[in-house]
TrEMBL record:
This is Transcription negative regulator ChrR. Transmembrane segments: none annotated. Residues 116-200 form the ChrR-like cupin domain. It comes from Idiomarina loihiensis (strain ATCC BAA-735 / DSM 15497 / L2-TR). InterPro entries: Anti-sigma_ChrR, Anti_sigma_zinc_sf, ChrR-like_cupin_dom, RmlC-like_jellyroll, RmlC_Cupin_sf. The gene is chrR. Coiled coil: none annotated.
Amino acid sequence: MMIKSHPGEGLLYQYASGDLSAAMTLVVGTHIDMCKACRQTVCEIEQKLCEENLDTLVSVASTTMSKSQCDQMLEAIFASSACNKQAHQPNEMLSLEGRRFTLPRTLAHNSHRIGEWSKLVGKLWRAPLTLDNGNQTNLIYMAPGAKLPEHTHKGKEATLVIDGVFNDEQSEYRDGDFILLDPSRTHTPETQDEDCLTLATLDAPLHFTSGISRLLNPFSQLFFR
């Protein structure tokens, strides 16, 4: 199935250059695992960055370092890369409510960061991911017929569909679709006959905008921490 919602080229450039937060790196990197087009774009950006940085490095090294110093520097770089081994065994499978999901490579390599599942309102479940930043990052599972109350965002929210389908007032989102929202967007995510597993990160709490759900606003930071 064709992925129709992608990170912008600016976000892909930040990913390739290492300028994203840990949470956004995880979400964008997982999308890249699932998206051939974005994977190709990132490869091209990385190649360009590598050529630019290598030219700069060679120019600086040739004017300030001896050949033996250059050789020592390169040996140190390759040695540090060789020592950077995976500290945790990746777990590619995730089970919940009788369903088994296959996790994309980047998410599987961070499976040790996934916390315990807890049930939220209605047919929603959440498992937090422990990352070294201030963002709120969660796996969200929506059973068939689930609905999150209408809300907007005090900051930015990035959501990636891992498996399944959900929709809001704007569109329908399936495996691999990446959605980036800001305070200008109000929506009501819901599932119909299929369930949906998503990976989402927030840099500020949700703000509920409709009916009785607005009573949740004082607790929204706790609700999605």
